[in-house]
Design a protein that fits this description.
Structural class of chain A: alpha+beta
Radius of gyration of chain B: 22 Å
Oligomer: heterodimer
Radius of gyration of chain A: 41 Å
Shape of chain B: globular
Distance between the termini of chain B: 59 Å
Distance between the termini of chain A: 83 Å
Strand order of the largest sheet of chain B: 3-2-1-4-5-6
Largest sheet of chain A: 4 strands, antiparallel
Number of strands of chain A: 15
Shape of chain A: flat
């Protein structure tokens, strides 16, 4: 009998000691056979990682021709490259169908991905070329999650990429015919998700040993070690120990057989890579999720990420290192902005009658339920008491709706009769005692100095011919039953109070029971808080005494503060005048320009003469000569139109508002980019490791590019705005210059210290 | 009687309080004689009244030793033709100047240097009080604004009072328009117009003063939204030190009166507070001039 074990849901935990050149230690030898569909299809996209620690998603696009079936060949181009590259034609292939995306979709995905990544063109130039597109997974994920309304589903799919699958040990090489050969040469891991690339196909001769966890320990693990010194290998986690054990026995047998035969060392297919390069960062799914979430929520961050991480200026870990606070646990759990309750009276659940039968349908959403709980404490209490111990949730709401309906139709007699019969129903029809209590408590806390009589004149409700129109019928205050005495204005007030209180709960809507309990809990908390406030009562009374005191009867109070004594207020003026003088272009200011030689009597006499002259002459006609008026008018207009575009004259609007939007956006974007780069630049000093040195190089190059772009913006801007743009660009250039200067001086120090003479050094 | 039921035209009804500078020292030397000035101003007041039947204009004279109401269009006896308005204003002005000179004489008796600056703070306060009275009478009121017709230079000793008036006007949302008929700009009014959102204008050609007034200051506040009026030039809010009047970016501020100094002083020259702290290391306040 052959040993063929197919284990479902094996979680693979590959400790990645991968060779640097390859994306993976082992790549699937079985190329994927793709169905031939008109146009392009993305047959697969899956997750992989490269040496710059980025997660990549590989989109696989096969060509139309059947002989050009594309398959993933991770050896080539895991690095950041967006090239179109023909696929190798697989020689032999196992049949495996993949879920296909229709040709129309790929165009959409292609353009979307293009939009997200800013890639020049990821669509094939001609339909005969197969195309392979590599996109950082994050972006594809962002795109996919925008397609599906529920991002969680995608996350689950994403997790499936990483884990879950089938481990096949001892499978038959020729697939279909299992009886002929027994494969003792390799083991294969096939993930559950056929599109995942987490497939393993490893020859046993590469495996040096195997370890396993004890029966009964926490996890059923099997560790196939590849190189005992370095600890590379594969760790599989099984669902149960029996599966693990049968697998382990088989592996042990095979390994024992293999090791008895002396293996040729040069058969090692791929040489081990030299150590020294940093190992890629392993991200947990949670961590990934968090980063993806942050990027999705912050478009600015996404842009920076795209600009620097995608182009390789910064690595993923460097980028996030400066944003540790964002990634912190607390921030993700922090209270989010919650929308409040609707201000519309939601609590009126409108029945919809279908017209033919007597059936009346109410529809309740979780949101409505939450609002009902908040606005009608009696219902809330009844729910806590009755559900699910006495009745099901459905019954409860049916009853509630029935009560509402009775209320609405104002069938007082029926309501009364029903309430007498059914005590649960009575809860809804009864005057709400909790509300009454609350109102009483609130009244106790009202400022006793409040003049309630002042509003008496505003009461229109009790006047004849006044009232509130509700549902096209007048809601007059005088009705017989107790129930309907709960007037609309009371309802309105209650609703307003609830809306103002806001949604205090941070509970996912959905489970009514949890919502109800959380609400009860928060209310209790509030109550206890108020209890402590009772102690403040005394203080309140004191306040009242203060409020009612008559000012006239009090002794004059001395000011509690020392009055400000200013020797000479003139100084304030002088200091301001100096600036005003400059602002207006040096026109003469000053207090001493009046002719003081004239005596007081003289000047007054002169003024009086002037007045009497005006008196004797009376009003002139015309008041002003027409040509003077025209001159003044045109002068004013000219002045206004000239100052319109002048800079700095109007401090109310920002200088940025006046330059074209494109330039403004560019400048803002460059500024954020520069800040990001500078932060990385300065934080890498002093340079202690080669990694930091490389980083500084990369960052410096990127800054150089931005410097160029800034210069271009400066030069290409229109003459109207050139001055202003250059003013804005100036501080950016200065900041960059400072960084460059520091870089150069550090570089010199470095060369001087190491004693290395720069090229062309002459003594 | 003045606050006629104006419910229909509330938006474009204005209450203009014009402050007339009657500083004799200024008018004695001014390029524009006072009589000429009146020939421009009085028709302007008449035209304001013509713009809307419900408009209200109040004229306040700013003297060197006192301020006073000269004219109130809401006054019962001020109605009628423009000539009556004109003669009424001139007569009141005559009275005011006579009174002002007498008060001035009294204070001049002790041989101090005569006050040559007009009491801008006083007339601003009068204007604000008047507007407050209008605000408190009747349910609907016209939109108020203040127009300063200023010629004489600023009085530095009034700094605190004037600034207080300006800030009160800002709180009441009353724009202060300024028309400078003198030779120098006014730092006070420049600030006032800037802070309150009024128009600051210094006409170059004084024989066309009426045209300036009519073009820039006649429109009501509602219409101003649609017009491009001379905007107040940006006021330089940078601080300059009290000791050398230099604009500074960094300096020492008196913790008592907020005076600014470019150097460390042992004693504040403005309020006289003594600082007994040791002067900090001179390298710390990095001054950029």
């Amino acid at each position: 009998m052959e040993l063929l074990i197919e284990l479902s849901q094996v979680i693979i935990d590959r400790r990645p000691r991968k060779r640097q050149r390859l994306g993976w230690d082992v790549w699937p030898e079985n190329p994927m056979k793709l169905q031939d569909v008109d146009g392009y299809i993305i047959s697969d996209f899956s997750l992989t990682t490269n040496r710059t620690e980025q997660w990549f998603c590989v989109l696989l696009v096969p060509a139309r021709a059947p002989q050009q079936i594309g398959f993933l060949y991770p050896d080539s181009g895991i690095a950041i490259r967006r090239s179109c590259k023909p696929f190798r034609v697989p020689t032999n292939s196992t049949q495996r169908s993949l879920s296909l995306i229709p040709a129309t979709r790929i165009r959409t995905i292609g353009t979307e991905v293009q939009k997200l990544t800013g890639a020049s063109s990821i669509l094939p130039p001609s339909p005969s070329l197969p195309l392979r597109v590599e996109v950082p997974f994050i972006y594809l994920f962002l795109y996919l999650s925008s397609l599906h309304s529920d991002p969680k589903q995608n996350l689950i799919r994403y997790k499936l990429f990483l884990s879950g699958g089938r481990l096949e040990v001892g499978f038959d090489k020729n697939g279909g015919n299992k009886r002929r050969y027994k494969n003792e040469e390799r083991f294969v891991f096939v993930p559950n998700d056929p599109r995942s690339l987490m497939k393993l196909n490893v020859e046993f001769k590469n495996i040096k040993g195997h370890k396993f966890s004890k029966d009964g320990s926490k996890q059923a693990l099997l560790n196939l070690t590849q190189d005992p010194e370095k600890g590379t290998g594969y760790i599989f986690e099984f669902d149960n120990f029996t599966d693990r054990n049968s697998c382990r026995d088989f592996v042990g047998r095979v390994l024992g057989k293999l090791q008895s035969v002396p293996g040729r060392p040069n058969e090692q297919s791929v040489p081990e890579k030299s150590a020294g390069a940093p190992l890629p960062e392993q991200l947990s799914a949670v961590e990934m999720e968090r980063r993806i979430k942050l990027l999705r929520e912050d478009s600015e961050l996404l842009r920076l990420h795209k600009q620097f991480v995608l182009s390789g200026v910064l690595t993923e870990s460097e980028f996030w290192a400066t944003r540790k606070t964002l990634l912190g646990e607390d921030t993700t759990r922090m209270t989010k902005q919650r929308p409040g309750f609707k201000s519309a009276m939601l609590a009126d659940v409108r029945p919809s009658a279908d017209g033919r039968t007597n059936k009346v349908t109410f529809s309740l959403t979780p949101e409505i339920i939450q609002q009902i709980f908040a606005e009608k404490p009696a219902v809330h209490r009844a729910f806590l008491n009755l559900v699910p111990s006495k009745m099901s949730e459905k019954d409860f709401w049916t009853k509630y709706c029935r009560a509402e309906y009775l209320n609405r139709t104002r069938n007082a007699v029926v309501a009364g009769a029903e309430a007498a019969e059914d005590e649960e129903l009575a809860v809804f029809l009864k005057h709400d005692d909790i509300l009454a209590n609350e109102a009483r408590r609130k009244i106790r806390r009202v400022d006793p100095t409040l003049d309630m009589e002042a509003d008496e004149g505003d009461d229109y409700i009790h006047l004849p011919d006044h009232g509130i129109l509700r549902d096209a019928q007048k809601d007059t205050a005088e009705t017989e039953t107790e129930v309907s005495r709960r007037t609309l204005s009371q309802d309105l007030n209650r609703h307003a109070a609830v809306v103002l209180e806001g949604r205090a709960l941070d509970v996912e809507l959905g489970d009514t029971r949890t919502v109800a309990e959380a609400l009860a809990w928060s209310k209790q908390e509030l109550l206890s808080k108020e209890k402590s406030e009772e102690n403040v009562n005394l203080e309140k009374q004191e306040k009242v005494a203060r409020m009612t005191e008559l000012e006239d009867l009090q002794a004059p109070r001395n000011p509690q503060y020392a009055s400000l004594c200013i020797k000479d207020p003139r100084e304030y003026f002088d200091s301001q005048q100096a600036n005003a003088l400059r602002a207006l272009g040096g026109t003469e200011f000053g207090t001493n320009s009046l002719d003081l030689n004239l005596s007081k009597e003289e000047v007054y006499r002169h003024l009086k003469e002037q007045i009497s002259e005006a008196k004797s002459r009376g009003l002139r006609n015309p008041i002003i000569r027409p040509d003077t008026a025209l001159k003044v008018f045109s002068g004013l207009s000219q002045h206004l139109s000239s100052t319109r575009f002048q800079l700095g004259k109007n401090s109310q609007e920002s200088a940025l508002d006046r330059i074209p939007h494109r330039t403004k956006d560019d400048l803002m974007h460059h500024w954020t980019s520069i800040q990001e780069l500078l932060r990385h630049f300065w934080s890498s000093y002093p340079i202690t490791t080669a990694g930091l040195y490389n980083k500084v190089q990369r960052v410096k190059d990127a800054m150089g590019q931005i410097y160029q772009k800034l210069q271009e913006i400066k030069e290409s801007s229109q003459s109207d705005f050139r001055h202003q743009v250059s003013l804005l660009v100036q501080p950016m250039l200065q900041a960059l210059d400072a960084a460059f200067a520091h870089y150069d001086s550090e570089q010199q120090k470095r060369t001087a210290k190491s004693g290395a003479k720069p090229n062309g050094y002459v003594r | 009687m003045a606050s006629a039921p104006s419910k229909l035209y509330q938006d474009d009804v204005s209450l203009v309080v014009a402050l007339l500078d009657t500083n004799p020292f200024f008018w004695a030397a001014a390029s524009l004689p006072f009589s000429e000035f009146l020939h421009h101003v009085i028709p302007f007041i008449n035209s304001l009244l013509l713009l809307n039947q419900l408009n209200r204009v109040v004229l306040i004279a700013t003297g060197t030793s006192s301020c006073g109401y000269i004219f109130d269009s809401g006054d019962g006896n001020a109605s009628g033709n423009s000539n009556a308005v004109c003669s009424g204003i001139i007569k009141k002005l005559e009275d005011f100047v006579g009174k002002d000179s007498k008060i001035g004489k009294g204070s001049n008796g002790d041989g101090t240097r005569p006050a040559i600056s007009s009491l801008l703070s006083g007339s601003l306060s009068l204007a604000l009080c008047y507007i407050q009275r209008i605000f408190r009478s009747g349910t609907r009121h016209p939109q108020p604004r203040i127009l300063c017709l200023q010629g004489s230079p600023d009085g530095p000793e009034q700094y605190v009072a004037v600034m207080n008036s300006i800030f009160s006007a800002q709180r009441l949302m009353i724009p202060i328009d300024s028309c400078i008929v003198g030779a120098q700009h006014s730092a006070f009014l420049q600030q006032a117009s800037y802070i309150t959102g009024g128009v600051y204008l210094k006409p170059q050609q004084l024989d066309g003063l009426f045209q300036f007034l009519a073009a820039a200051f006649a429109t009501d506040l509602h219409s101003r939204n649609f017009l491009r009026l001379p905007k107040p030039a940006g006021v330089d809010f940078r601080a300059s030190c009290f000791c050398h009047k230099k604009t500074i970016d960094m300096g020492y501020v008196c913790s008592v009166c907020l005076s600014i100094f470019c150097k460390y002083h042992k004693k504040c020259s403005t309020c006289g507070s003594e600082f007994n702290q040791v002067a900090p290391d001179s390298t710390i306040p990095d001054q950029k001039h």
